Amino acid sequence: MPVRLLFQMINITSSKALKLDYAIVRLWLSLSRVRVKHKGQVTIPLELRSQLGIEEGTILEIKAHDGEIVLKPLPPLEAGEVVGEEEHKKIIAELDELRRNWR
């Protein structure tokens, strides 16, 4: 049902209607629907990204809960302990060995 017709049916004045229009738009935006693309990708609406501080590169936790998909922004990763050049080379060598054994 068009919003204006609804306003007429419940006798809302234009100043009240403007405020209600804004509230309806905000509600509609909070209930946005998105289409899942062929690789399972969805676009999170800009208002929700802004509201939750989600920007490119943000890591999200995803889980199923009571039949719904829940996305939760995670705090930024913190840098680990600073290591010297020799320790760095040792860590890289260990990772290379793990990769070789994994393949």
Number of structural units classed as domains = 2
* Helix-strand category: mainly alpha
Strand content: 5-15%
The total of beta strands comes to 2
**What percent of the residues sit in helical stretches (DSSP H or I)?**
40-55%
Structural overview:
The chain has two domains: 1-31, no CATH class; 34-75, Pemi-like Protein 1, Chain: D (Ribbon), CATH 2.10.260.10. Helix content is 48%, strand content 12%. It has helices at residues 3-9, 14-30, 46-52, 85-102, and strands spanning 60-65, 68-73. A two-stranded antiparallel ribbon has the order 1-2. The longest helix has 18 residues, at 85-102. It is elongated and about 65 Å long. The relative contact order is 0.06.
Give a brief outline of the structure.
With 103 residues, the protein is mainly alpha-helical.
Record keyword descriptors for this entry.
mainly alpha, 2 strands, 103 residues, Pemi-like Protein 1, Chain: D
Lay out the secondary structure.
Blueprint: H1 3-9, H2 14-30, H3 46-52, E1 60-65, E2 68-73, H4 85-102
Antiparallel strand pairs: 1-2
